[in-house]
Amino acid sequence: MPDEKLRLRVANAAWARWTPVNLVGITAHLVGGAGILYANKDRVAAQQGVGTFTIAKAALTGAALAVTGYSRVLGKKLEKADGESVEGGTDPSPMTSPDVAKVQRQLKVCQWLVPGLTAGIEVLNALHGEQQRPNQQVPGIVGKPAQLGQALARRRGVVMPAASAAARLRAKRRTTASDEQPAPSEPS
Q: Which of 46, 62, 89, 141 has a CA-to-CA distance to 13 between 20 and 30 Å?
């Protein structure tokens, strides 16, 4: 657009039109995520590693929502700067006031952070999906109670009966195996 004073108005109008679409997308993501979490609540509680990924996804989602909200706040500031000379929606010109240029630079960073955080969420979604495979669920669910029990026992300085029984069995097997081996023959 040739008129530098109209560029910000055009960019702001376009972003303002996307706000309802963003809101619908965010709401759908949160409602869907809550439904999936509810449906998998037992697996999240029981399967080793699933709770950690769930917390990480929630943290990334919260960060993405915070950056998205902050982007809207910055967009509102730029709407108030209507008529300012700029190169583009996030690119100041030499004539742009320092305050508006600062807001534009912050908005440019946010426009990279949102997709970056969203990509992180998608990576965790893929890893979460792998944890739903039957060959991952059984060992994860069986392993978690034993791991939690051993961790609690170590904190209290208690030797777990199952752990001590397993240690005794291993020691017995080693002793039996060494007793059954023939003595090395002497060289002739």
A: 62
